[in-house]
Write a structure and sequence with these properties.
Blueprint lengths: L7 H18 L9 H9 L10 H4 L25 E5 L15 E5 L7 E5 L8 H4 L24 H4 L20 E5 L11 E5 L9 E5 L1 H15 L5 E7 L1 H17 L3 E7 L18 H10 L9 H8 L11 H8 L4 E5 L7 H6 L4 H4 L4 H23 L5 E5 L28 H10 L6 E3 L13 H9 L1
Parallel strand pairs: 3-4, 3-7, 7-8, 8-9, 9-10, 10-11
Antiparallel strand pairs: 1-2, 2-4, 5-6
């Protein structure tokens, strides 16, 4: 009989997982398995215990999907502590904007059911130029689809984007680093909210029309279906993201939370606010109203009562179909025991530019860059103050609004590291807010910076400059 040699890399992986489990045993929390169960999981990984039900599969609108048989999605249940690409069966309807297969990534642990679902950021689009990527940072991310090696170190904008999904981060520690991680790439240009096939004409008249699939809602439903059919129900679940990903976090939290059924749920929206903007209100009072009207049409959000917005309004009683900013109220009322948080910089110049630059002539036509930026900031401050007032009415919604950080156009507080996203005048670090959100009790922290000077007095940060180029 010929014995099979033991793979040294497998031995190292088992040792690492065993050490991780042992180190966590003294501080185990809800969702963590004991040592012996963890050891068993190494050799016989746990299967799903909360699969899609017949009722969910037969829902009238945006049903979940039964597990398709015979399709090789690429997932190995025992492939712990490494990013695995999961390609969804074409029969699920999950596709990128250009029609290519949709993929997401799973990094599993053996010692816990707890899970973070992280939605990638990266722009938005509603015309030929932005959906083909011609407008660069202001256009859609991944217009050519998602490669299998997307989470490699050669793509640090994904693999190293945030301490929330970077296990061995050298400077920032947070408990989601010990959880199962689900990284949901962004390739539809619709902040994970759309449901429309669009045809965009080349304004130059030289190229063929672009057929673009604003398929974000269906992609998220397919991801949730796969998670239910392949992994354990999470005892704790954090849904998070930055920029467009956080808009998607907010818009999809209710159906994700409802279907995944965690014991404890957390939401962290970093720099992807959906501001209050009632359709009956004036855009002078609600500057994001023009953006909201544009995307409702471009991404098929209404569809005469059959789109993603009516779908939410039919079940989320606190959500007003005529004001997408009421999602905060709807979630606060629906999940009073969940802990939810909003964070962004007062001086964000990225998401704010998407929100106003193309919708206000006095901004778009202003030849002076500094003047344009000041007008954008003024509208962002007005919208943020509206949101701040709204959130102050809820104990389970927190906020953390620092002034400025000199990286990525002062956009996204939780990327790279949590340092320098602080509120100096209150001696609060972003760590304090995230830890309060995930570990605290009582009202979620609410803090906002009024000091407009100190953040600009910090010295040049070479790391931020370098990473800013990569991101």
């Amino acid at each position: 009989m010929i014995s099979r040699p033991f793979n040294l890399s497998s031995l190292k992986s088992l040792a690492a997982i065993g050490l991780l489990s042992f180190s966590l045993s003294a501080s185990a929390e809800l969702g963590d398995y004991g040592f012996w169960q963890t050891l068993k999981n190494l050799f016989s990984p746990m299967g799903p215990d909360n699969p899609v039900t017949t009722e969910q599969a037969n829902a009238n609108q945006y049903p979940l999907l039964s597990n398709p048989g015979g399709f090789n999605d690429g997932f190995s249940p025992g492939g712990y502590l490494s990013w695995q690409a999961v390609q969804l069966d074409p029969s699920t309807g999950a596709i990128c904007g250009n029609g290519s297969p949709y993929k997401f990534f799973v990094n599993r642990v053996a010692h816990s059911s707890n899970t973070i679902i992280y939605m990638e950021g990266g722009g938005a689009c509603w015309d030929y130029e932005s959906c083909t990527g011609q407008t660069g940072i202001r256009g859609a991310r991944n217009p050519n689809g998602i490669p299998d090696d997307y989470m490699s170190l050669l793509n640090p904008g994904a693999s190293l984007v945030s301490p929330l999904v970077f296990r061995l981060h050298p400077w920032t520690s947070t408990k989601s680093q010990n959880w199962n991680m689900v990284y949901v790439p962004y390739c539809t240009g619709d902040t994970y909210t759309g449901d429309k096939v669009a045809l965009y004409e080349d304004p130059s008249g030289q190229g063929d029309p672009l057929v673009w699939y604003h398929n974000g809602t269906k992609n998220l439903r397919s991801v949730v279906s796969w998670l239910k059919n392949n992994l354990q129900r999470p005892a704790q679940m954090l849904v998070a993201g930055c920029s467009a990903g956080s808009t998607g976090t907010l818009a999809n939290y209710y159906p994700i939370r409802r279907d995944m059924e965690p014991t404890k749920g957390f939401l962290l929206n970093d720099s992807g606010p959906i501001y209050p903007a009632p359709r009956s209100g004036a855009d002078s009072d609600y500057p994001s109203k023009r953006l909201h009207e544009k995307i409702r049409d471009a991404w098929g959000l209404d569809q005469n009562g059959n789109g993603p917005v009516p779908y939410l309004a039919n079940e989320l009683t606190g959500f007003d179909i005529n004001d997408m900013g009421t999602l905060y109220r709807g979630l606060a009322q629906q999940y009073p025991s969940d802990r939810m948080g909003q964070t962004h910089f007062w001086q964000d110049l990225n998401y704010s530019s998407y929100s106003y630059e193309r919708f206000y002539d006095d901004i778009n036509s202003d030849p002076d860059q500094e003047s344009r930026h000041q007008k954008i900031h003024a509208k962002w401050h007005q919208d943020t103050n509206n949101l701040k007032t709204e959130l102050e009415g809820y104990d389970n919604w927190g906020y953390f609004f620092p002034h400025f950080r000199d990286v990525n156009e002062s956009h996204c507080t939780t990327i790279i590291e949590f340092a320098n996203s602080e509120i100096q005048e209150q001696n609060l670090e972003l760590d304090d807010f995230v830890n309060n959100l995930l570990n605290g009790s009582g009202s979620v922290m609410q803090a906002s910076e009024t000091d407009t000077v100190s953040d600009y007095q910090k010295g040049f940060n070479f790391l931020y400059w370098l990473l800013g180029q990569l991101l």
